[in-house]
């Protein structure tokens, strides 16, 4: 008897008992597969033969009594083991824990900002044995995803909604990536839920093995797609915005039920469970949430001059751009947005939105003014008025938590947030384990930046914490 398979079946039987349709289906499949594995196949499809066999059985009273006693005995034993599993499982199989990692870092202490444990974790990160550990490569994912059911079980994906509230409030995600397959897959696993929809844009410059691995992962889920149009993404150029717009279009056409659109990149990670995200989006009540504020003078050159791509880099020219095709100011913002479905339709179909999009294509870092300006257009779904009283800073927008070098310091002396506990890339903090307690105290949905090559433990503790919390919140 395949005890491991029955173990999985019992987990999903519990889901079936809670009324989840996915659990019911899986339980039936478990029983059917196990019976076939053990050799319990019907000998004939002929109904007359079956009735005849039944009649012979009942005529043979002694044999029937023996079968009945055996059935009662097996049922009793089975029920005993089921109760034992019911009391002991508590969904432990779905927890994202690794005993090898737990020996090197105590996440419970790190979440409490225990300085001794944080120092110990940082020390373990630089040891030769840890740095030389085997990593999961493109080839691993290519091989694993040849058997999708095994992949989903092995990687512990939640293939059923954890609550009715989540099930009736699907979210659409655009994820723009170009490298580090393991980081991408961990993020996807942390935000995955079967009622949501995911579009993955892979940079044309990515390695062929990376692209193949992403396609393999996407093929294992009905609600995960690879963008139908791929861009060759250049930093701070229009191609980064176009990648998101490509996914917007694919997601808009894929399903009409999702409520909100959120865009992500490869170094983002959730800091809320799916249920917490759903509840924050419901509070918006159809409004968008993104950074949009008055344009600083020093940033105006980004859209006042024509920019061109030269040798895979964006460069400013001396040529002046024509005036923007809007009756509002150009607003400053960020690349990360949380917008309602109707706003996505507006971006894809509205002629006025298309004029601003066309005008923005030869500007520097257009995503840092395009979304912010569209959010202030009269009549745009989910928008806010142009009055500066409606300005939203990156701190107040729930879309992304980013810690900038020049705003770090002692909060008691006026700094926006404490110093980065990791390191900086382009003045942005790449979080370390010491940042984790502070991160989880913030109201944002996602945080940026994370790099598991620089600090493996911060992501491990974060994803373990979120999974445990999600299971605890389950209906």
TrEMBL record:
<dbReference type="InterPro" id="IPR003406">
    <property type="entry name" value="Glyco_trans_14"/>
</dbReference>
<keyword id="KW-0812">Transmembrane</keyword>
<keyword id="KW-0735">Signal-anchor</keyword>
<keyword id="KW-0472">Membrane</keyword>
<dbReference type="Pfam" id="PF02485">
    <property type="entry name" value="Branch"/>
</dbReference>
<dbReference type="GO" id="GO:0000139">
    <property type="term" value="C:Golgi membrane"/>
</dbReference>
<dbReference type="GO" id="GO:0003829">
    <property type="term" value="F:beta-1,3-galactosyl-O-glycosyl-glycoprotein beta-1,6-N-acetylglucosaminyltransferase activity"/>
</dbReference>
<feature type="transmembrane region" description="Helical">
    <location>
        <begin position="67"/>
        <end position="85"/>
    </location>
</feature>
<keyword id="KW-0328">Glycosyltransferase</keyword>
<comment type="pathway">
    <text>Protein modification; protein glycosylation.</text>
</comment>
<keyword id="KW-0325">Glycoprotein</keyword>
<comment type="similarity">
    <text>Belongs to the glycosyltransferase 14 family.</text>
</comment>
<protein>
    <submittedName>
        <fullName>Glucosaminyl (N-acetyl) transferase 1</fullName>
    </submittedName>
</protein>
<keyword id="KW-0808">Transferase</keyword>
<keyword id="KW-1133">Transmembrane helix</keyword>
């Amino acid at each position: 008897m395949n005890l491991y398979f029955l173990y999985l079946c019992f987990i999903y039987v519990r889901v079936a008992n809670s009324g989840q349709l996915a659990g019911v289906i899986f339980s039936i499949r478990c029983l059917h597969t196990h019976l076939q594995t053990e050799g319990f196949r019907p000998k004939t499809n002929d109904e007359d033969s079956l009735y005849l066999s039944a009649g012979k059985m009942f005529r043979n009273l002694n044999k029937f009594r023996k079968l009945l006693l055996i059935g009662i005995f097996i049922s009793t034993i089975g029920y005993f083991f089921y109760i034992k599993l019911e009391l002991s499982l508590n969904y432990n199989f779905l927890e994202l824990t690794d005993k090898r990692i737990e020996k090197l870092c105590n996440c419970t202490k790190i979440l409490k900002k225990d300085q001794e444990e944080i120092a110990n974790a940082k020390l373990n990160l630089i040891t030769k044995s840890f740095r030389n550990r085997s990593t999961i490569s493109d080839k691993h994912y290519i091989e694993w995803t040849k058997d999708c059911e095994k992949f989903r079980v092995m990687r512990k994906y939640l293939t059923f909604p954890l609550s009715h509230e989540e099930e009736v409030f699907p979210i659409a995600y655009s994820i723009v990536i170009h490298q580090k397959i393991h980081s991408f897959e961990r993020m996807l696993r942390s935000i995955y839920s079967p009622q949501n929809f995911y579009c993955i844009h892979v940079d044309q410059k990515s390695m062929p093995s990376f692209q193949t691995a992403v396609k393999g992962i996407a093929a294992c889920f009905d609600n995960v797609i690879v963008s139908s149009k791929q861009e060759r993404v250049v930093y701070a150029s229009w191609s980064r915005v176009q990648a998101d717009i490509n996914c917007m279009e694919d997601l808009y056409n894929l399903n009409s039920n999702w409520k909100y659109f959120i865009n992500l990149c490869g170094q983002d990670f959730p800091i809320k469970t799916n249920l917490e995200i759903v509840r924050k989006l419901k509070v918006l009540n159809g409004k968008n949430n993104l950074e949009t504020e008055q344009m600083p003078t020093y940033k105006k050159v980004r859209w006042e001059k024509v920019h061109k791509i030269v040798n895979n880099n964006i460069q400013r020219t001396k040529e002046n751009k024509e005036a923007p095709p809007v009756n509002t100011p150009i607003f400053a913002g960020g690349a990360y947005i949380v917008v309602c479905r109707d706003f996505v339709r507006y971006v894809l179909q509205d002629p006025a939105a298309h004029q601003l999009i066309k005008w923005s294509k030869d500007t520097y870092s257009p995503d840092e003014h395009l979304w912010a300006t569209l959010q202030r257009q009269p009549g745009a779904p989910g928008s806010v008025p142009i009055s500066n009283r409606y300005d939203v800073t990156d701190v107040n927008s729930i879309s992304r938590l980013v810690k900038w070098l020049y705003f770090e310091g002692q909060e008691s002396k006026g700094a926006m947030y404490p110093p980065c506990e990791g390191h900086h890339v382009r003045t942005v903090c790449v979080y370390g384990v010491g940042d984790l307690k502070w991160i989880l105290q913030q109201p944002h949905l996602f945080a940026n930046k994370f790099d598991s090559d620089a600090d493996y433990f911060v992501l491990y503790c974060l994803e373990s914490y979120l999974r445990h919390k999600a299971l605890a919140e389950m209906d």
